[in-house]
Amino acid sequence: RSETRWQAAHCVRRLAEGNCEKEINALLEWMKRDAVGAFGSHKFPFYNLHARLYLLIALARVSIDNPQILKPHHSVFSLQALGNIKHILIQKFSAEIALNIEKAFPNTYSRDVVEQLCRVGISQLPVEKIDGYTDKLDSYWHAKGEVDTSLEFYHGYDFDRYWFEPLGDVFGISGEQVEELATEVVINEWHTDVDGSYKSDPRVKLWRSSRNERGTSHSHGSYPRTDNYSFYLSYHAMMVVAAKLLQKMPVVHSRDWRENEWTEWLDRHLLTRNDGHWLADRRD
């Protein structure tokens, strides 16, 4: 539930304000452990990427107010930003934390690492101009014939048009190709042992126990108050695909009235997924 995630994020911030070093250290050790262990139900899959993302959102705020409490873990954040984990929001918040630590404590990172951190979330390829109404490109992987288009996964209502298509537009590829790339992430990279459909969600009885399904419904690109497993998988798979596309493909410019398609797409998800007051407060 979104409400619970934000309560947890605010708890992390208050722990840092109280200089609770042992608790902050323990949270980061759990993140490195990358498992929930006995603290999770054996009946339900743990939303690991939600936990990681919202902890980093909280620590991004902490890195402004109290960077010294995070300095002992500086290598964790540079690894999250620059390592093998490709997830644009996780990378972006990790880089922000690392750069705030570097600002408070110069020479924490080498010059090369700082330069890499500054490039996180920024396209390193020249913008390509296309006619957005008629031109469509193939993704880097589709062009090389490296995508298994036979895979099937239900990404949820409205995901194709209101989630995948806008990301595809940034790089001039179809929403269908973005969906196929996201499906490969879910099945071939994460080895998900369920098909991701609404019915296969083990929490389905919880959703049906309330008249409004505890707020799991969403449409037209809106976020649900409660994320079912299908939405969770599709959302994070899209963020992984976004990171991959940014690395391999140029951003396209197809509308004269749009200044930077990638920045607009990324800012939308940074602002929408995060608490607006929280983010505005951080940036002020």
Order of helical and strand elements: HHHHHHEHHHHHEHH
Beta-strand proportion: under 5%
Sheet with the most strands? 2 strands, parallel
- Low-confidence stretches are none
Shape: globular
Strand order of the largest sheet: 1-2
Coarse structural class: mainly alpha
Question: For the terminal residues, how far apart are their CA atoms?
Answer: 28 Å
Radius of gyration, whole Å: 19 Å
Question: Based on DSSP secondary structure assignment, what is the total number of beta strands?
Answer: 2
> Helix fraction?
55-70%
What is the number of helices?
Answer: 13
Mean pLDDT: 88
Overview of the structural elements:
This protein is mostly helical and 284 residues long. 35% of the residues are buried. The mean pLDDT is 88. It has helices at 2-17, 21-33, 48-65, 74-82, 88-104, 111-118, 140-143, 159-171, 175-189, 204-208, 229-248, 261-273, 276-283; strands at residues 128-129, 252-253. A two-stranded parallel sheet has the order 1-2. The chain is built from 13 helices and 2 strands.
Summarize the model shown:
By secondary structure, this protein is an all-alpha fold.
